[in-house]
């Protein structure tokens, strides 16, 4: 009986150690997993929106205690020869700090090793090239400028209405003093 309990506990510890080691290691992120990480890390999401989809994304174990979150996300841009790590830090019990922890150049050996695992296309998800992306950005900027102009017109109308109401109240006040 005692031997069975010892064997059972040993197997349980071995399985738990294997699970923890696998969880703490590095692994490649799928497109859906990368989208999930982007949803919880604004710095990561902003970088991907600005610079396009990475050639490869991985998650790495970061820390087992605060203030850092338990993992970081590393993006690899092979054409730019760049590796960027993003992580979250906890403050007051919440992961509020979202930053780029490092940005490093990739060596030729690292690029060769990573290129065998890279599966993302060289263009971004929409399939637009640099010229088309620039034109699309210009169109969005023009639309945003139009919205700002409309908001300014609305603010001018509201100011004119307020000025007219104030003028009316002032003249009513002066009339009440004459009586």
In short:
With 179 residues, the protein is of the alpha+beta class. 56% of the residues lie in helices and 22% in strands. The N and C termini lie far apart (107 Å).
Main beta sheet strand tally, sense and closure: 5 strands, antiparallel
Low-pLDDT runs: 16-24, 121-125
- Oligomerization status of the protein chains: single chain
Query: What percentage of the residues does DSSP assign to strands (E)?
Result: 15-25%
Work out the helicity level: 55-70%
**How confident overall, as mean pLDDT?**
78
Main β-sheet, spatial strand arrangement? 1-2-3-4-5
Structural class by helix and strand composition: alpha+beta
* Pattern of helices and strands: HEHHEEEEHH
Integer count of domains: 2
Cα-based radius of gyration, to the nearest Å = 29 Å
Shape: elongated
Termini separation: 107 Å
Number of strands: 5
Number of separate helices? 5
What does this structure look like?
By secondary structure, this protein is of the alpha+beta class. The protein has two domains: 22-120; 128-179. 56% of the residues lie in helices and 22% in strands. The chain has five helices and five strands, in the order αβααββββαα. The chain has helices spanning 2-24, 31-40, 42-51, 108-115, 130-178, and strands at residues 27-28, 56-61, 68-77, 82-91, 94-105. A five-stranded antiparallel sheet has the order 1-2-3-4-5, covered by helices on one side. A hairpin with a 6-residue loop joins strand 2 (56-61) and strand 3. Helix 2 crosses helix 3 (42-51). The chain is elongated, with a radius of gyration of 29 Å. The N and C termini lie far apart (107 Å).
């Amino acid at each position: 009986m005692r031997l069975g309990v010892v064997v059972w506990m040993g197997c349980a510890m071995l399985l738990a150690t294997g699970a923890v080691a696998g969880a703490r290691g590095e692994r490649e992120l799928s497109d859906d997993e990368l989208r999930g990480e982007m949803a919880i890390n604004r710095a990561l999401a902003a970088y991907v929106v600005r610079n396009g989809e990475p050639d490869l994304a991985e998650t790495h174990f970061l820390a087992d205690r605060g203030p850092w979150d338990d993992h970081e996300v590393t993006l690899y841009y092979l054409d730019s020869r760049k590796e960027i790590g993003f992580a979250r830090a906890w403050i007051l019990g919440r992961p509020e700090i979202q930053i780029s922890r490092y940005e490093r150049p990739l060596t030729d050996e690292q690029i060769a090793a990573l290129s065998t695992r890279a599966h993302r296309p060289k263009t971004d998800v929409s399939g637009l090239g640099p010229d088309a992306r620039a034109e699309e950005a210009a169109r969005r900027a023009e639309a945003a400028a139009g919205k700002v102009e409309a908001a300014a017109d609305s603010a001018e109308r509201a100011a004119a209405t307020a000025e007219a109401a104030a003028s009316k109240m002032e003249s009513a006040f002066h009339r009440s003093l004459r009586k």
